[in-house]
Specification:
Number of helices: 14
Number of domains: 2
Shape: elongated
Structural class: alpha+beta
Order of helices and strands: EHEEHHEHHHHHHHHHHH
Largest sheet: 4 strands, antiparallel
Strand order of the largest sheet: 2-3-1-4
Number of strands: 4
Strand content: 5-15%
Distance between the termini: 25 Å
Radius of gyration: 24 Å
Helix content: 55-70%
């Protein structure tokens, strides 16, 4: 279940209470009048089954509660209550399959920003991938896949496309457009400096036979990217977030960037371009599959005023 807190003006309190009371899946409804200081108003709270939260948020937003007050949603790890059990039984669907759109937008919106931590993680992941290439180490390549933070902006781009959120899609494109070129340049410079300092010997890439799958573009490159994008979006829109780890280590986005940087330092432009093509195929495949999955999932939940809320952000 999720804990929903609503701060609203006194003249909207009865309307909010009635809305929550009429929603199947609501339990532990409480009202504290005059509890809110800024903005002034009342505090209404309830525990709501996950599969009913999306409808509650849509109904409250349609009434303008998010403009005159505020709505917050928090996860509840453990709830011991017969009333909560009855509420979950009354709510249609399964909580693990429920899509909470506002939660998804907030989560992907935060991960789509080209923050210092995002750029640092992407650079570190590309450096790990480059080390994996020069040492012919598939294990290091897998480590780079896990560290890479690129799925966040890719998921945000899919959400922005499906929800017609130009601001969200724009942030995601900026994060990717800044992050990958910067990581490529830093990785290439690091490879040149490391070789000049005698830390590594960058040999011709023909000898790196254990990691040559990175730059080899084929039908399975797209198939794997599509499957990973679908699995990733399913994980983000449900209670199956553990599946994201499998997504991270199934696509060769960051490894392709690291391989391209190393190939460029060697003047191996054929492999460099093939790696960049691999990167592009993975990025596009993930976004397309994630968008399709999200589009199908949103159609399973009828939301009043969905188009208006998506366009407003």
């Amino acid at each position: 279940m999720l804990h929903v807190r609503v701060v609203c003006p006194p003249d909207r309190t009865d309307e909010v209470v009635d809305c929550l009371r009429a929603t199947p899946g609501t339990a532990h409804l409480t009202l504290t009048r005059g509890a809110a200081v800024a903005p002034e108003g009342d505090l209404v709270a309830a525990d709501v089954a996950r599969e009913a939260v999306d409808g509650v948020l849509a109904a409250l937003s349609d009434r303008g509660v998010d403009r005159v007050g505020g709505i917050t949603v928090e996860p509840l790890e453990t709830v011991l209550s017969d009333a909560a059990d009855r509420a979950e039984e009354a709510a249609p669907g399964l909580g693990s399959d429920a899509l909470v759109w506002d939660e998804l937008v907030g989560r992907t919106g935060e991960e789509a920003r080209p923050s210092v931590s995002f750029l640092a993680l992407l650079i570190i992941a590309c450096l790990l991938a480059a080390i994996g290439v020069v040492t012919n180490s598939p294990v290091t390549i897998v480590g780079a896949m896990v560290v890479g933070p690129e799925f966040g902006p890719l998921a945000a781009l899919a959400v922005g496309l499906v929800g017609r959120r130009g601001d969200l899609a724009g942030r995601a494109l900026r994060a990717l457009g800044v992050g990958f070129p910067l990581a490529l340049v830093v990785t290439a410079v690091a490879a040149v400096v490391a070789e000049a300092a005698g830390l590594v010997t960058v040999s011709p890439l023909e000898s790196a036979d254990q990691v040559d799958f990175i730059y080899q573009v084929g039908p399975f490159s797209l198939i794997v990217a599509l499957l990973a994008g679908a699995a990733g979006m399913l994980a983000m829109t449900s209670a199956k977030s553990a599946a994201l780890v499998g997504v991270f280590i199934s696509v060769t986005t960051v490894p392709a960037a690291g391989y391209a940087a190393v190939a460029a330092t060697l003047g191996d432009w054929s492999r460099c371009l093939s790696s960049l093509a691999q990167l592009a195929v993975n990025l596009v495949g993930i976004v397309v599959a994630a968008a399709v999955v999200l589009l199908l999932r949103t159609r399973t939940y009828r939301r009043r005023g969905l188009g208006r809320r998506l366009s407003e952000g």
